[in-house]
Amino acid sequence: MQELVIISGKGGTGKTSVTASFAVLAHRPVIADCDVDAADLHLILSPRVKHRHPFRAGHEAVIREEKCSGCGACLTFCRFEAVRMNAKDAGKTTFSIDPVACEGCGVCVRFCPERAIDFLERLCGEWMTSDTRCGPMVHARLGVAAENSGKLVSTVRQQARRIADERDHPLIIVDGPPGIGCPVIASVTGATLVLAVTEPTVSGEHDLQRVLSLTRHFQIPTAICVNKWDINPVMTDRIEATARQAGARIVGRIRYDRAVTRAQMEEKAVVETDAPCVEDIKAIWSQLGACRTIPGRSENLEV
Ligand code: SF4
Ligand code: SF4
């Protein structure tokens, strides 16, 4: 089984449009949307949800009012200003904990003299398995102000691998998160190949450099493509030279095409339209098939 992960140094480079097109071009891959903080692949692939599963991670403190003596120790010990002192109720000062501000460190639970604070597993969101016109999909929704997106990304990838194993799918296509943080690392470790989508701007170049140093660190074979390359051909040349020097493979360029936005509005992948840039995306897809992987895992990526 092979895993192609599409990432970008920052949001808005066209990563999800490229991912959706690859999902259409591949022969029924398993699709994983690991951009859990700002998932949007579902807007194009319109998944029909089959199963929903709660995602729990970390803890949150909750005061049991009937046991609380109102001593205020939790207010003193909380370093995150998550404990609120409420108005007096029947002569007793009451306290409560703001679930958004609570970091789940557990200090108040440890030091409450009345053992009046519960330490509950935090419900951070949900992950889903679905069917799409391109193949099965695993995706997720992270709750408002919820953390642990790296753990949720790992869950989504694990489930995508399980489905690929069980149903004998040779390829998983992953829409990775932007940036280089924990969720990105959780998305790319152990992947067969990473494709970094970038744009020809100064920030695009800077962010790509950070992405390339990340994939080099984890020794993951990496390819790049420049989206909207024709808005700045000089910068495109520069980015490609930088990427080459960093050991990445250049698999193509995608022209600026207003039809990409139109396709999104019609809930279509770009390659399901007759947009001029379809030719560019198809060329990149075929180049990816020729990418060799790292020594010891030398099979080609199947397309
Ligand atoms: S430390 Fe415990 S008993 Fe004291 S105010 Fe907080 S919850 Fe109530
Ligand atoms: S668990 Fe930690 S962050 Fe949350 S209220 Fe208690 S002391 Fe504050």
Question: Care to describe what's here?
Answer:
The protein is an alpha/beta fold and 303 residues long. It has 2 domains: 2-46 and 133-289, P-loop containing nucleotide triphosphate hydrolases (Rossmann fold); 58-123, Alpha-Beta Plaits. Helix content is 33%, strand content 30%. It is built from 10 helices and 11 strands. The chain has helices at 15-25, 42-45, 73-77, 107-111, 149-167, 182-188, 202-217, 233-245, 259-265, 278-289; strands at 2-8, 30-33, 48-63, 83-89, 92-97, 117-132, 135-142, 171-178, 193-198, 222-227, 249-254. A 9-stranded mixed β-sheet has the order 3-6-7-2-8-1-9-10-11, with helices on both faces. Helix 8 links the parallel strand 10 (222-227) and strand 11. Helix 5 packs parallel to helix 6 (182-188) and helix 7 (202-217) runs parallel beside helix 8 (233-245). The longest helix has 19 residues, at 149-167. 43% of the residues are buried. Mean pLDDT is 90; it is low at 292-300. It binds iron/sulfur cluster (SF4) (2 copies). One iron/sulfur cluster is lined by residues 61, 77-78, 80, 82-83, 97, 102-108.
Features:
303 residues, alpha/beta, Rossmann fold, Alpha-Beta Plaits, 2 domains, 9-stranded mixed sheet, two-stranded antiparallel sheet, 33% helix, elongated, binds iron/sulfur cluster
Count of helical regions: 10
Q: Quickly name the level 1 CATH class of the largest domain.
A: Alpha Beta
Oligomer: single chain
The count of domains is 2
Query: Whole-number radius of gyration?
Result: 23 Å
State the CATH architecture of the largest domain: 3-Layer(aba) Sandwich
Total DSSP E strands: 11
Low-pLDDT segments:
292-300
What is the CATH homologous superfamily assignment of the largest domain? P-loop containing nucleotide triphosphate hydrolases
Q: Describe the biggest sheet?
A: 9 strands, mixed
